[in-house]
DNA sequence: ATTCTGACAGCAA
DNA sequence: TTTGCTGCCAGAA
């Protein structure tokens, strides 16, 4: 048996991935909301960091559905092209203008509420 | 081991 | 009002 040096899936990061993957199609959430759902509350920065390494996960992480609390696509530059994130969101019915989600409150998805 | 950074958020001036 | 600074937690150098 190969000794799996793989780390546990219960890491803070994995939780972020889990929540992020649970974001329904056409919905969005904020870093703070996820952090708060994880119990860290003010560790919203970690959520963004986790998504930064989301490439570690085997599955695709809809990180484009995660924005800051202002509804601004702060991490659009991490998608390779600065327009990828906005296009993906617009493709899901999110209205974006100038990297700002207009119907942010309308499409907002709170994990602490929706995700028991 | 120590130090810095980081896709944020909240508060101060 | 806007702008900027600090605080948060965890990982990377």
Description:
The chain is mostly helical. The chain has one domain: Arc Repressor Mutant, subunit A (Orthogonal Bundle), CATH 1.10.10.10. It is 37% helix and 7% strand. It has helices at 12-21, 31-38, 44-52, 84-91, 104-107, 111-114, and strands at 29-30, 66-67, 96-97, 100-101. The strands form two sheets. Strands 1-2 form a two-stranded parallel sheet. The chain has a two-stranded antiparallel sheet with strand order 3-4. The protein is globular and about 35 Å long.
Q: What percentage of amino acids are in beta strands?
A: 5-15%
Structural domain tally: 1
- In CATH, what is the homologous superfamily? Winged helix-like DNA-binding domain superfamily/Winged helix DNA-binding domain
Q: State the CATH topology.
A: Arc Repressor Mutant, subunit A
Q: What would you call the shape?
A: globular
Helix content: 25-40%
The total count of helices amounts to: 6
Low-confidence stretches: 1-7
Question: Helix/strand-derived class?
Answer: mainly alpha
Task: Give the C-level CATH assignment.
Answer: Mainly Alpha
Largest sheet: 2 strands, parallel
In whole angstroms, how far apart are the ends?
38 Å
What is the helix/strand order? HEHHEHEEHH
CATH architecture: Orthogonal Bundle
Side-by-side strand order of the widest sheet: 1-2
Mean pLDDT: 87
Computed CA radius of gyration, to the nearest angstrom: 14 Å
Number of strands: 4
């Amino acid at each position: 048996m190969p000794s799996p040096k793989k780390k546990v899936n219960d890491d803070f990061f994995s939780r972020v991935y889990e929540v992020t993957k649970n974001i329904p199609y056409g919905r969005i959430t904020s870093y703070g909301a996820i952090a708060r759902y994880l119990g860290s509350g003010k560790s919203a920065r970690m959520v963004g960091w986790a998504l930064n390494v989301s490439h570690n996960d085997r599955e695709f992480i809809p990180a484009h559905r995660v924005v800051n609390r202002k509804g601004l696509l702060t991490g659009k530059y991490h998608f390779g092209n600065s327009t990828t994130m906005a296009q993906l969101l617009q493709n899901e019915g999110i209205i974006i203008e100038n990297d700002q989600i207009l119907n942010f409150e309308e499409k907002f998805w709170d994990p602490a509420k929706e995700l028991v």
